[in-house]
Specification:
Elements (H helix, E strand, L loop, with lengths): L1 E3 L4 E3 L17 E3 L2 E5 L4 E6 L5 E5 L11 E6 L2 E8 L5 E9 L4 E9 H5 L3 H4 L4 E5 L5 E5 L5 E5 L4 E6 L23
Antiparallel strand pairs: 1-2, 3-4, 4-5, 5-6, 7-8, 8-9, 9-10, 11-12, 12-13, 13-14
Protein name: F-box protein At3g26010-like beta-propeller domain-containing protein
Pfam families: b-prop_At3g26010-like
């Protein structure tokens, strides 16, 4: 189902090549007039707003999404993908899509989550997640899903603690809408 703001309704849309893909609606990103959906097959399915141009973009090499642990977002007009490898040291890798046509990704940053949070993940059974990227700069937001939420500036490698009490463990990126409402509110 695809919602059209032009008609104000939902339309069932199927595409032969994409009907069997398991996509994540919660991790979708709207960029350049196109919706981007990560799939369980380590690809990103894109569809334009007219539902005419459907594409597949392979995720960066080594980034698998079998368990839905890859996220995507937009920053500075570009598509980003990130993944935390749960192999003892919890390495966060952040990639940026450089070229839609060739599917070329560039590794933007790799950092140890346990070092960012100042913990030993093997002792504390930590679980980390990156939940947002700033839309206008190289700033990411992470949580340990227990107590801390922090930001990390990828350019100067600075960490800032947002919350250390467990009161704020996740957030959603805010995207302003400049649509004018009709007088009846619909």
């Amino acid at each position: 189902m695809v919602y059209s703001s032009d008609t104000g309704g939902w339309t069932l849309t199927e595409h032969n090549d994409f009907s069997t893909y398991s996509i994540s609606y919660f991790e979708s990103t709207f960029l350049n007039n196109t919706m981007h959906f990560p799939t369980r097959y380590s690809e990103i399915v894109t569809v334009d707003m007219e539902r005419k141009d459907w594409r597949k973009i392979k995720m960066p090499r080594g980034m698998t999404n079998e368990y839905g642990d890859v996220s995507i977002g937009k920053s500075q007009g570009r598509l980003f993908a990130w993944h935390i490898k749960d192999q003892g040291d919890y390495q966060l890798s952040i990639w940026v899509l450089e070229n839609y046509d060739s599917g070329k990704w560039t590794l933007k940053c790799t950092v140890s989550c346990s070092k960012l949070f100042g913990t030993d993940c093997r002792e504390n059974y930590e679980s980390y997640s990156m939940f947002a990227i700033h839309p206008e700069c190289n700033l990411i937001f992470l949580t340990d899903n227990k107590k801390k939420t922090l930001s990390y500036d990828m350019d100067n490698q600075e960490v800032h603690i947002i919350c250390a009490t467990g009161d704020f463990l996740e957030g959603l990126p805010y995207t302003p809408s400049f649509v004018e409402w009709t007088s009846d509110g619909h």
